[in-house]
Amino acid sequence: MRVLFTSDSQRVGQKSGPSAGTGHSWSFFCWHRNMGNLLKVLTCTDLEQEPNFFLDFENAQPTDAEREVWEQVDLVLKDARGILDELQAYKGAGQEIREAIQNPSDEALQEAAWEAVVHLVGKLKKFYQFSQRLEAALHSLLGALTSETYDDPTQHLEREQALAKQFAEILHFTLRFDELKMTNPAIQNDFSYYRRTLSRMRINNTPAEGENEVNNEMANRISLFYADATPMLKTLSDSTTKFVSENKNLPIENTTDCLSTMASVCKVMLETPEYRSRFTSEETVSFCLRVMVGVIILYDYVHPVGAFSKSSKIDMKGCIKVLRDQPPNSVEGLLNALRYTTKHLNDESTNKTIKSMLQQQ
């Protein structure tokens, strides 16, 4: 995969790498090799030299080395669009539930509400089970993108662009899923009614056809999943944290640097006209913005002191400026995601300018 640099020392389209003039090409990259301890994760930052290349979100194809992981993840991503479509079309059983509650002695209305809710709970179970598949896919991608195959995360993203694209697609899906969930109170209302009704049926020894669909143990897990304001993001952040803890032989900065590099690449592509003009669709601009925000939030959960600290390797001021430079209506949801779903924004160590930039309406 060819990578574009804006350096005068390299022609546009020239392949980068150690053989492409180490002294010049790697001057763009601030990543410290073989950082083996937490102190360096907390203190190393050099934002003036960002990764500066075009990550082809539209056309990246897997190399032979990427193919095995790419095919595993592709099986999951093929179902992601359908999950979003189903969630977007989710209307809930609010009317049936209200009628059943208002007419407790009307068996026909009780039955109608139960049947409606059981059908919908099947969908909610499907969404929850997809989150588990997504978690496994993320583990596979992180394993590939943080391995010791290459010296730093920039090389990984540059040379494994198909996997980087899949990682971006997971982040894009996650933010979109959580946006839809947050604006649909019917999801939790339906599930609460299901659990209350099921409990009442058990007390009365009434056969419950829907119990086979979601047993009590599964119901507890699903309830915890939807109780979170951003359930898919929580799944991803927990999964990434778990990945770090399970791979103790892998320095933590392999993971955090992968995330910060992805954020930087998205920012640079969005603010650099030569790169942005290569997008063939405005949808790719929206995709890139969503991925940038998603990876910032993920970094904020996984990095010990988060994305907003002075030691963060993400240029938060630059990222917020990129968002502010878009048409306001198109990015308000993303700005809200940074305001309300990050972990460290309200820490005392967060730069006041960054807080002010996010608070502006």
TrEMBL record:
Citing just one GO molecular function, the answer is: small GTPase binding
Q: Which domain of life is it from?
A: Eukaryota
Q: Does the keyword Lipoprotein apply?
A: yes
> Taking the first listed entry, what is the main subcellular location of this protein, grouped into a coarse class?
membrane
Task: Mention any one GO cellular component term assigned to this protein in its UniProt record.
Answer: membrane
Q: Which portions of the sequence form the region Disordered?
A: 1-21
Q: Where in the cell does this protein reside?
A: Membrane
List the InterPro entries: CYRI (IPR039789), CYRIA/CYRIB_Rac1-bd (IPR009828)
Instruction: Tell me any Pfam family this protein matches.
Output: CYRIA-B_Rac1-bd
Q: How does it sit in the membrane?
A: Lipid-anchor
Which keywords are on file for this protein?
Lipoprotein, Membrane
Question: An example of a Gene Ontology BP annotation on this entry?
Answer: regulation of actin filament polymerization
Record-annotated CYRIA/CYRIB Rac1 binding domain positions: 52-355
**Which family does the similarity line name?**
Belongs to the CYRI family.
PANTHER family named in the record = GH09096P
Please identify the protein, giving its name as recorded: CYRIA/CYRIB Rac1 binding domain-containing protein
